[in-house]
Amino acid sequence: MVQLMLSARLGPTSVDSRSRCSQTTLRCLTRNHVCMVGGLPCYDPIMEIKKLLRNLDLGSSVAEFDTSLDRYFVETEVFRALTRDKADIIAGEKGTGKTALFRVFKQRYAAIPELDGVEVIAGFNLAGNPVFQRVTSIDCMPEAGYVTVWKAYFLSLVGNWLLELYEPDLTKGMRALDSLLQRVGLRSKDDSAESIFSKLVYLVDHWLRPKSAGVKFTVTEGGIPVIAPTLDFGRSEPTEPSPDVIAHEEALGVLNKALEEAELTAWVVLDRLDEAFQGFPNIEVPALRALLRTYLDLLAYPRIRLKLFVRNDLFRKVIQGGFVNLTHVNARKIEIVWEEEDLLNLFCRRVRDSAEFLEEAGMAGLTDKDLFDGIFPAQVDQGVRKPTTWTWIMARIRDGNGIKPPRNLIDLIAKAKESQLRSEDRNPREYTQNMPIIEADSIRRALRALSDQRVLVVRVANDEQSRRGCEVGPCCALYRPRSPQ
Ligand SMILES: Nc1ncnc2c1ncn2[C@@H]1O[C@H](COP(=O)(O)OP(=O)(O)OP(=O)(O)O)[C@@H](O)[C@H]1O
Ligand SMILES: [Mg+2]
Fold first, then answer.
1. 249 and 109 in one domain?
2. Same domain assignment for residues 209 and 307
3. Residue among 60, 61, 62 to mutate when testing ligand 1 (max atoms within 8 A of CB)
4. Which helix (H) or strand (E) holds 163?
5. Which bin fits 483, alpha (ψ -120 to 50), beta or left (φ > 0)?
6. Which ligand lies nearest to the CA atom of residue 347 in the structure?
7. Whole-angstrom Cα distance, residue 178 to residue 163?
8. 485 lies in some domain
9. Ligand 1 centre from 345 Cα, in Å?
10. Residue scoring higher pLDDT (348 or 242)
11. Which band of pLDDT confidence, cut at 50, 70 and 90, is reported for residue 5?
């Protein structure tokens, strides 16, 4: 196969290059590019490092844009815990892989035997402005009000999804669900998270601000207000709400029953929660505390499960000052942490996905360690007491809590590659084995560039928060070298 590929790459010039090789045997023997033409070894033309590097694609450091993620995803312990339903709260620092985990899990869960009967539903929009931001357009409510919003949201999201799946062959329980959703004005033909949440916010706004001098609701934890039975969003305005409410227990019980009849369990996944209420601390904390409370309440309904992907800092902010039943939450929480071997594997899988680079560099079949050592120099700073390049990188991608997010690793190496390409433009090198493709200088320059970029990002974020009159977040120490070196 390799032979075929190389022969194909050499194409009609293969014989020419064979004769050229015979004249420059010594030089060619230092290379890895050997193919057989007519039973004779043939050496590839001189390979410039610039060309090699251009074929090395490390993907994106943000999961939303990492288009080949499925091909080089590392199935970590957290992935396995999720497939075995060992956790509901997936917590991690920024860039540790929450979105990546969700994206790949959503693609693969259907093929996992343990998850037979489970359906994973995205409870958030994957791109664009986070849908939950819309809640900031309505008046600030006490925590209990947000509990009602979340429960009504999950009822509507899962309920409409189930009804769309089974329509027109609805079971008895599904018909009850259909009628319930109609009564509270939450039946929708479009079951996307964006559409369902937008309609809900519109409805909540109406509860809080009736257009005529009718009954004004206080949105409480009690239940979902019943509105006129003929209400249909998109075709008519909601009529004035009546003071009737359907208790959450009743509504969720109907949904649970309908799911039971379908022999399905719905896992609703929420990610991007940190973006949702950014800049609105007076809404962010009660809304997210209410979400945690809703999570606990939903444990009573075995067919409806929430899976929350949250940033550690946000989680800490939400439980600050105490949270009833925190032990129940913690019992189902798992944290994304990265072992160094997994990070090395994550990098090497990306390199191996660049097939042309691998072939041209003669690195196919190498172990993770040899692959890394084949690309980088042994040390960034020379000296017997100095660390290896891998250890040097690991020390610099750590954040203030000692966590090493893959995003930092990918960013650092991608920047080192860019820097090396610029250096190759100035002083082109030819590739021979045992020479670092990315040099120490490029790694150092990449670190400086990332530090500057990071400081700029934090400054812009802080300016934005100050502009909105919110408290300024702590400056993150990412990429800042840990020693004066
Ligand atoms: N298990 C994995 N295998 C391969 N790549 C991964 C894995 N986990 C994360 N990554 C990569 O690490 C980078 C950061 O991941 P991701 O964007 O999911 O972080 P995040 O935790 O969602 O960050 P944020 O808090 O900013 O939303 C992405 O390039 C992603 O593809
Ligand atoms: Mg993310």
1. yes
2. yes
3. 62
4. helix 143-166
5. beta
6. 1
7. 7
8. no
9. 14
10. 348
11. very low
Cβ of residue 90 lying under 6 Å from some atom of ligand 1: no
Q: Would you say residue 484 lies in a domain?
A: no
Report angle CA 150, 151, 153 to the nearest 5 degrees: 65
Of the pLDDT bands very low, low, confident and very high (cuts 50, 70, 90), residue 223 is confident
Q: Are 319 and 467 contained in the same domain?
A: no
Q: What pLDDT score was predicted for residue 278?
A: 84
Q: Into how many domains does the chain fold? A: 3
Any domain includes 351: yes
> Considering 288, 312, 335, which residue would you say is the last residue of a domain?
335
312 CB within 6 A, ligand 1: no
Report pLDDT digits (tens) over 6-38.
333 333 333 333 333 333 333 333 344 555 555
CA 95 / ligand 2 centre spacing (Å): 7
Tell me the residue range of the domain where 310 lies. Answer: 77-335
Same domain, 14 and 106: no
Say which amino acid occupies 472. V
pLDDT of residue 411: 97
The amino acid at 164: E
Query: Strand pairing of 34-37 and 40-43?
Result: antiparallel
pLDDT at 439 over 50: yes
Question: Among 285, 320, 335, where does a domain finish?
Answer: 335
Query: Tokens 């960034």 appear where?
Result: 380
| Secondary-structure percent of the chain, ordered helix, strand, coil, rounded to 5 | 55, 10, 40
Q: Kindly state whether residues 278 and 363 are assigned to the same domain.
A: no
Q: Are residues 443 and 456 in the same domain?
A: yes
Which residue has its alpha carbon closest to ligand 1 atom 15?
97
Domain assignment present for 154: yes
* Nearest protein Cα to ligand 1, atom 8: 97
Residues 90 and 201 both lie in one domain:
yes
Are 226 and 183 a contacting pair, CB within 8 Å? Answer: yes
Q: Which residue has the tokens 């400054």?
A: 459
Ligand 1 pocket check for 283: Cβ under 6 Å? no
Q: Are residues 91 and 187 in the same domain?
A: yes
Please report which confidence band the pLDDT of residue 236 belongs to, taking 50, 70 and 90 as the band edges.
Answer: very low
**What is the reported pLDDT for 281?**
84
> Atom 18 (ligand 1): residue with closest C-alpha?
97
